[in-house]
Write a structure and sequence with these properties.
Layout: H1 3-13, E1 16-23, E2 26-36, E3 42-47, H2 51-58, E4 61-66, E5 78-88, H3 92-104, E6 123-137, E7 146-150
Antiparallel strand pairs: 1-2, 1-4, 2-3, 3-6, 4-5, 5-6, 6-7
Length: 151
Amino acid sequence: MNLKKLISDYLQEAKLMSIATVKKNKPWVATVWYIHDENFNLYFVSRKTRRHSLELKENPNVSGAIAKPHKTLGVKTRGLQFEGICQEVRGAELIQVFSRFIKRFPGVTKFVLSPKEIVKTPHRFYKIVPSRIVLFDEINFPDNPRQELKL
């Protein structure tokens, strides 16, 4: 099994991820819509006033999980966990991220009309550069479902 391909396929199939931030040893989890690129970078849009957005300014370290719905307990499962660094997307990269984001989620234009106008809105795009991704996959790796990709 090609681990990178399995991870890429899973990232394409799922649409929501949960990210965890920390401030003063108090964790917080938020669920956000995301896209990814060929290097496994994860991008999401969120209001700059949300707790996770504010905490990222002070501490860019994040972890997270991506899980598609499963039918019930006891059925073979798959899911992703990751850790990395998160920062606001700026400059030329913002144009690329915005373009890719509206292809997957056209409804984002209800909040942000263009990359140039994002500074006039309460929304921002963020980029997570993972240092490790763990695919937990009981379907393709029944004997050792925890498969780790270090980046």
